[in-house]
Design brief:
Elements lengths: L4 E6 L4 H11 L11 E7 L10 E3 L11 H10 L2 E4 L10 H22 L3 E4 L22 H17 L3 E6 L1 E3 L12 H10 L6 E2 L5 E2 L1 E3 H14 L3 E6 L6 E2 H13 L10 E2 L14 H19 L8 H8 L6 H16 L1
Parallel strand pairs: 1-2, 1-4, 2-3, 4-5, 5-6, 6-11, 7-10, 8-13
Antiparallel strand pairs: 9-12
């Protein structure tokens, strides 16, 4: 048997990192071993129970925080890099994203150059909102803007480096398609939990926007497919695009989930944020104001991306065997999993 190729996975303790490790460890022909891969979990904070091998890896630090000998040994060991480390929380000042999302990518590029290793980078589909040909400019105060800008800068660093690399741009992630499992609740789950309480007087959403959610194992399978095939170039939008559910379908799915647990939700009306009277959201109680502002700003991001996010899903299905998964079914499964965790 040939020697497995070693993959350094940065951000292994994060949602994407743990999903990749879990998917790679699944038995069968799709496992990492069957792909001829050995995943080495780069860990800075948090437990990684799915990892079979770990290495200290602070991407914001020179040499990942390692001494020169340990760093040089890691350079010799690694054949491929999956760069999933990143600060993904929204609403922070621009300078908060710099150390991990931008400087961290520079450190990964330096490492990959020394190792002669292609890089597979986990970005965000929301970068479409800042593209030069965006139909509508994204507001300066949008809660997602600084995060998106940091990911866009990281992508540019990779392009400028000349390194062989791929970019995967997932939309908002939900739990695994079959089980709903996730290592940590994400924004979709948090927003859904709040909406399920019936606290939203309305849902601010621009006409035609899609609620584009993707099960995290689909992203993992796409990345593992690129590793398996030895691909070292390409940009992939891990989204549903025009297949994604619209806002009413999302609310119906949430209501269906609640009905299965003996609860009732009357879906709130959907209102175009551009038609709201000034200050309506700002006048709401603090928690409602926070959640409604996020809903409005995420809708704005999608509108600035053309209302429907770009998608590479057909290519990912054909090229890497990513399965067809109904997004409403995956969303419902994720909601049921989250509800089970909270009881």
């Amino acid at each position: 048997m040939s020697t497995p190729r070693t993959v350094l996975l940065t951000g292994a303790s994060g949602v994407v990192g743990r999903s990749l490790l879990r998917t790679a460890a699944a038995p069968g022909t799709g496992s990492a071993a069957a792909r001829g891969l050995r995943l080495l979990a780069g860990v800075h904070r948090g437990p990684v129970p799915e990892a079979t091998g770990t290495v200290d890896c602070d991407v914001s630090a020179e040499r990942f925080g390692l001494d020169e000998d340990s760093y040089a040994a890691l350079v010799r060991e690694v054949d491929l890099v999956v760069h999933s480390a990143g600060l993904t929380e929204w609403g922070l000042p621009a300078e908060r994203y710099e150390p991990v999302n931008v400087t961290g990518t520079r450190q990964v590029i330096e490492f990959a150059e020394r190792a002669g290793a292609p890089v597979h980078f986990i970005s965000t589909a929301f970068v479409a909102a800042l593209s030069d040909d965006a139909p509508v400019p994204l507001g300066e105060g949008n809660v997602c803007r600084n995060y998106i800008a940091s990911k866009r800068s990281a992508e540019q660093l990779l392009r400028d480096s000349g390194l062989p690399h791929t970019v995967f741009r997932p939309t908002n992630l939900v739990g695994e398609s079959g089980t709903g499992w996730t290592s940590q609740a994400q924004i979709v789950q948090l927003m859904s939990d709040w909406l399920a309480r019936g606290r939203a007087p309305f849902v601010p959403a621009h006409p035609g926007v899609r609620m584009d959610f993707v099960a995290q194992d689909l992203l993992s399978l796409a990345v593992l497919g690129a590793l398996r095939e030895g691909d070292a170039e390409g940009e992939y939008w891990v989204t549903y695009g025009a297949e994604a559910m619209d806002v009413p379908a999302c609310l119906r799915t949430l209501a269906k989930h609640l009905a299965g647990r003996g609860r009732t939700l009357a879906p709130p009306p959907v209102v175009n944020p551009d038609e709201l009277e000034p200050g309506v959201i700002e006048a709401l109680p603090p928690m409602a104001r926070s959640f409604m502002s996020v809903l409005r700003d995420v809708s704005e991001v999608t509108r600035c991306s053309g209302g429907v996010l770009p998608t590479s899903m057909p290519e990912l299905r054909t090229r890497y065997g990513v399965p067809h998964v109904d997004d409403t079914a995956a969303y419902l499964t994720a909601l049921d999993y989250a509800a089970g965790q909270s009881t």
